[in-house]
UniProtKB/TrEMBL annotation:
Residues 98-166, 241-302 form the Cupin type-2 domain. The keyword Iron does not apply. The lineage of its organism: Bacteria, Pseudomonadati, Pseudomonadota, Betaproteobacteria, Burkholderiales. Keywords: Dioxygenase, Oxidoreductase. The keyword Endoplasmic reticulum does not apply. This is Cupin domain-containing protein. InterPro entries: Cupin_2, GDO-like, RmlC-like_jellyroll, RmlC_Cupin_sf. It comes from Pigmentiphaga soli.
Length: 320
């Protein structure tokens, strides 16, 4: 302890005089915190949100007049939750973005710590993602995985624009401060394999098989997608028959719902969002939610529940 600090301690005559000294030395008295550090149940400033594919597609088509993949690492529109100064994260541990490629374009190769995946919305002939040299076709309804620290790039060799939704755990990596990023030294990633099947591609047909094997409850089937290479992101596909409705519940996880096909209404807390194909809805932690199908519908759920379970934090409550 310095002489000045000792002198300060010697003249302290009560708690009101002690608190500023503690603050100066970067201590907080646990009994005198400005705000609580523990609370009864999860709380979050993140709010339910609905992003519409039709709207985003108009905006990204407009932007494509002026920004190309030669200028931008990715031509994408991030879907952010308006929390404080946040202009990036969709939810505390997840971010989603609409991305688009024009014919002849190549989104150059890079790799990074965060895990990522793509839900293909609209793509026609000769559109690909390449992951560590493995070429994966991008077909509407496909889910393509890009595990952390794998080289990945995208190509449109066809005659039509291609669109998809990216999902990443970048906000989680930001919190952990373990971000690493590297552009490919050649910008272009050569194709080494083009397999008919890959664990990095979960096609719409694969999803159909999983859903057919899943039990049906009141017109709803759900199947967890096996993604051992991506431990921080949980993926589940849901199929609802027209008029079907899920049970309302809440749990200690945040999730994003993307509508693969059909239409539905997603209720979150006291809000309700009417969704069409390609739309995205954010459900923050501990918010009760339910899904009602207007027509036969398929949804992809992207969640941080695997992280919550891994750490032992996960809880759920039915009938909320």
């Amino acid at each position: 302890m310095s002489d000045d600090s000792q002198a300060s301690v010697d003249v302290i005559g009560g708690l009101d005089q002690l608190y500023p000294v503690l603050n100066r030395e970067r201590y907080t008295a646990g009994w005198h915190k400005a705000r609580p550090s523990l609370w009864k149940e999860p709380r979050t400033p993140f709010t339910p949100r609905h992003w519409q594919y039709a709207q985003a597609r108009r905006y990204i088509d407009l932007a494509a007049q002026w920004i190309g993949t030669d200028q931008a690492e990715r031509r994408n529109l991030l879907m952010f939750n308006p929390v404080d100064d946040n202009d990036y994260a969709s939810l505390p541990n997840l971010v989603a973005a609409y991305q688009m490629l024009r014919p002849g374009e190549h989104a150059r190769a890079h790799r990074h710590t965060p895990n990522a995946l793509r839900l293909v919305l609209d793509a026609q002939e000769e559109v690909y993602t390449v992951v560590d040299g493995v070429q994966l076709p991008m077909v509407p309804g496909d889910v393509l995985l890009t595990p952390g620290w794998t080289w990945h790039s995208h190509f449109d060799h066809g005659r039509h624009d291609a669109y998809w939704i990216d999902f990443l755990d970048v906000p989680l990596v930001h919190r952990l401060e373990s971000m690493f990023f590297e552009p490919h030294p050649e910008h272009y990633q050569p194709v080494e394999q083009a397999p008919a099947e890959s664990p990095l591609r979960i096609s719409a047909a694969d999803q159909d098989r999983l859903l057919a094997a899943a039990p049906e409850r009141d017109g709803v089937r759900s199947a967890r997608l096996d993604t051992p290479s991506m431990r921080t992101i949980g993926l589940t596909v849901h199929r609802l028959g027209a008029g079907a409705r899920t049970h309302r519940h809440r749990d200690a996880a945040s999730r994003l719902f993307a509508i693969i096909e059909g239409s539905c209404r997603i209720e979150v807390g006291d809000q309700a969002f009417d969704c069409e194909r390609g739309d995205l809805v954010a459900v923050p932690i501990w918010h009760p939610y339910a899904i009602a199908a207007g027509s036969d519908a398929r949804l992809l759920e992207v969640s941080d529940d695997s992280v919550q379970q891994l750490l032992g934090f996960y809880r759920k409550e039915s009938g909320a």
